[in-house]
Every structure is written in C-alpha cells, then in structure tokens.
Write a structure and sequence with these properties.
By secondary structure, the chain is α/β, with parallel strands linked by helices. The protein contains 17 helices and 11 strands. The protein is about 45% helix and about 15% strand. Helix 1 crosses helix 5 and helix 13 crosses helix 15. This is Replicative DNA helicase.
Length: about 475
C-alpha cells in the first residue's frame, strides 16, 4: 500500500469528525479556512460540499434532514452519490457521539496529514516508522524536523564560515560604489534624512520608534511606499495591528492627496455616504493603485497571531521570489505565554531577523516599526533608553529613528522655541532659517543610531497631516537634552 493511501486511512476519522461537527454546528465554518481539497475520502468530500454550500451560499444555520433534502433536489447528481454513502443516517449517527469542543484539534490534525501527503507528492520519502512518529507530532514539529534536516545537509555541503583577503575583488567594489549600489531606497520627500542615513539599504534593518498613534505606520506609507513605486521595486508588508482594509483605505487617501493632488481626508472615507465627487476621486485613486500593482508591487500579509518565526518564513519565501524590501508593522513580543524575561526574547528575535537580512545572508532590507515606552510621553529628547527593557533590539539594526510630535512651546514664540534651518542657495550650502506655520502640524525625527552617518547630533523636522497622509521634510534642529 502506498504511503499516501496509508495517510488517507489515518486521517479518515479526522475528516468524519470535522464534517459531522459542521453538520451539528455549521457556523464553525466562519472560523476556519477549509475547502473540499482538504478532504481525501470521497464520502466526506461529498458531505463537506453539502454543508459548505448550505451554510455559505444558502445561508442555512440548521442542517436537518429536510433542509438537506430540499438542497439535494436541486442537485440530482450529488443526491445520488449522497444516498450511496448512506444519506442523512451517516451524519445522524456521527452527530450523536461527536463533541464540537474538539473541533480545532481535528482541524490541526487534518492540516498536518495534508502536509504529509504534500511531502510524499514532492518525492520526499515518508516510511512507516516516520508515519508512526508523525502521529504524535504537531505541524510545527514536522516543519522543524525537515528544516533541521535540510539545514544540516546544506551546512555540511558548503559552510557559511568563509575568510577573505582584504583586497578580495576590491576593484569590483569600486565599480559598484561608482554605480551607487551602496545607496539605499530613499525616504520620499526627505532629502536630508536620506543623505545622512544612506536611505534603506540592502543588508540592513531600519527601526522606526514612537508612541502609540504618533504616525509610525503613516511614516512607512508616506516615506517608503512612494519610493518603492518610483524605483520599480516591490515590497512585502507584514501587519501586526492594522488589517488589509485599513491599509487599503489609508493608501487611497495617500494617493488622492499626494498623487492626484486633490483634497481627501480620512474621516470622509471612514464615514461613508460619499458625494459623487468623493466617489469619483476614490475610484481614480483605486485605478492608479491597480495600474501600479499589476505585478504585485505591494504585498500585504496581516498576522492573526504574531510570531517571529512566521516573519522569517515569509521573508524566506518572498526572497526566493526576488523581493528585496520588507516591512513589519509593528514589532512586538511573540503571541502566547508571556515569559518573565520576555524582553530578552525580543532582543534574540531581532537577532534572528538580522541573520536573514544581513549582507552575508540574504542581503535584503526590512523596516520595522515599534512602540516606545509609555514614560516617553513627556520627554523631549529621545535616546535608546526610550525603548525600555528591550532597548538592545537596536543592536542588530543599522538605523534607528524615533518620532515624536512637536510640543506647543517649541513653536515660534514658545518658551522652548526651536531654531529650525534648511540648506538653500545655488550650491545648497547656505543655512537658512525656517519658520513653522501656526496652522500646520509638525514632528521631530531623532536619528538615534546610524551606521552610515551622524547620530544624535541634530534632528529632522517634518510637516505632517495625518488626516491626509501627507509627510515632508522642512528642516533640521537641535533639541536640547531634557532638564
């Protein structure tokens, strides 16, 4: 008997239990991703097709013999197969002893054996001993076992510990530098910040820190996404808080204000009941996004539960497809049990992300937003200490920026008014004062860590309108240390 047939026999009770529970409580379909292809046994394929159609298409919440009978009158071919498998009595007998409390466990079991079947179809040998071992394994344990096997094979084949002479291909390096390959993706509308940090360059992590609702996600949308599009790059954005629709909504507002150059505020989009001109503007923005996204320029992946190992899986997958830019919004502790020293695990998780990113590994870039400690709310000068217990997450990063809103007394005429300048003139070398407008909003960006330039010597001032997703650099300043 082939391995796949053996797996089919092993998973048969699991398939029967899942479908029986769904007939008993069909609303559970709303909480899982199941398709007919997840089932191997023909009988349970048929019964699943019936319950799936009745719940998702015909919107039936009670699946008794009459409801099923009326449905099958419209599907005579399915009815014949259904009757050959025992009709409603098959389900009735199963429902009497099955408990829906075990539903999630049956789903995990089903997914596990489907993965084993895929391994077999890929030509990976799964013998009887391995099948017995898998019975007590979770999906994750199977994944880790094969990951270790492949890692061992390739590490032994070609070690990653290599040594080089300092002169190794140094002339080729000069040619690369001449072409500007060491310069990263620029921050849109932020010339000074890009020049100082080198932009978002390959083999590095950029951290963006700030308090809740300060606009970290808005910074990602406004500074990075336009540059991705302008430079014909692609990006994968992993979401920890906002979902897909929130990002789509925010990006529609961004395109309306920054690309089409027509006024559109977030609350107008959020509240609905659009005027004709608003609807037309949104459709125009959607068309622009669709045209730019024909080749999946921006891929959004929302996490149901955040785990760093899933970030690494996703990055490995898309790196193999040629993607070089990634973003994680927002970096947090892994979901699950909170350890007493969880901050140490956060630091280790950042190291593991860097092991994928760095030049000696996959040589890609990831921008990661994170939240500062709540004690930062009244602080004026930001340093690494504003991160709190997990401050060493900065260690693997090449660039760390922190954002706060300009305080009222830092505006012109205020008790602690800041002196803000920009460079102008024919050669861009003249230092010119900048006066902030009373009716506009501003933020300060602190360059806390910077491997390509200065850090903590001056701060960047940006104008922002978070209701319209507009962000642009206006100058630089020196924020005094807190006293």
């Amino acid at each position: 008997m082939s391995t796949i047939k053996k797996v089919a026999e092993i998973k048969l009770p699991c398939e029967a239990n899942i479908v029986s529970i769904l007939f008993k409580k069909p609303e559970l379909l709303s909480n899982v991703e199941l398709s007919i292809n997840d089932f191997t046994n023909n009988a349970w394929k048929v019964y699943f097709a019936i319950v799936n159609d009745l719940y998702n298409i015909e919107k039936k919440n009670v699946l008794d013999v009459i409801t099923v009978g009326l449905y099958l009158e419209k599907h005579p071919k399915l009815k014949t197969v259904y009757e050959n498998f025992g009709g409603y009595n098959t389900i009735k007998n199963a429902i009497e002893y099955i408990s829906e409390d075990n539903f999630n466990g049956y789903i995990s079991e089903l997914k596990k054996w489907n993965i084993v079947i895929k391994l077999c179809k890929m030509g990976i040998i799964v013998d009887d001993n391995k099948l017995k071992e898998f019975i007590d394994c979770t999906t994750e344990e199977i994944y880790e076992e094969y990951e270790c096997m492949f890692n061992d094979i390739f590490i032994n084949a070609d070690t990653d510990m290599k040594s080089y002479s300092i002169s190794y291909k140094i002339r080729d390096l000069i040619d690369e530098l001449d072409e500007g390959l060491a310069v990263g993706l620029p921050y849109h509308n932020m010339r000074m910040l890009t020049n100082e940090t080198g932009g978002q360059y390959m083999g590095s992590i950029t951290l963006i820190g700030g308090l809740s609702n300060v606009g970290k996600s808005a910074f990602l949308r406004s500074s990075t996404i336009p540059s991705i599009i302008e430079n014909n790059e692609k990006i994968v954005i992993m979401l920890n808080e906002d979902g897909l629709k929130k990002w789509q909504r925010e990006f529609l507002v961004y395109v309306a204000n920054n690309v089409i150059k027509k006024d559109l505020q977030k609350q107008t989009v959020r509240d609905g009941s659009f005027k004709n001109e608003t609807k037309e503007l949104l459709l125009e923005a959607a068309k622009w996004i669709e045209n730019k996204d024909k080749d999946n320029v921006i891929t959004i992946i929302p996490f149901k539960k955040y785990k760093t190992k899933n970030v690494i899986k996703i990055m490995n997958k898309y790196i193999s497809l040629g993607i070089r830019y990634f973003a994680l919004d927002t970096y947090k502790m892994d979901a699950g049990k909170v350890e007493s020293h969880a901050w140490l695990q956060m630091q280790q998780n950042m190291v593991e992300i860097n092991d994928i990113v760095k030049p000696e590994s996959k040589n890609v870039h990831i921008l990661i937003t994170f939240q500062l400690s709540k004690g930062s709310v009244m602080q004026r000068y930001y340093t690494q200490d504003n991160i709190g217990m997990a401050k060493n997450i900065v260690d693997p990063a090449s660039t760390c920026l922190m954002i706060r809103t300009l305080f009222d007394d830092e505006r012109p005429g205020g008790k602690r008014a800041l002196n803000i300048y920009t460079y102008a003139g024919k050669n861009g070398l003249s230092k010119v004062p900048v006066r902030l407008a009373d009716n506009k909003h501003y933020q300060i960006i602190f360059i806390v860590k910077n491997r390509e330039g200065a850090a903590n010597t001056y701060q960047i001032v940006v104008e922002h309108d978070l209701s319209r997703n507009i962000l642009k650099e206006v100058g630089f300043t020196n924020v005094p240390m807190d006293y």
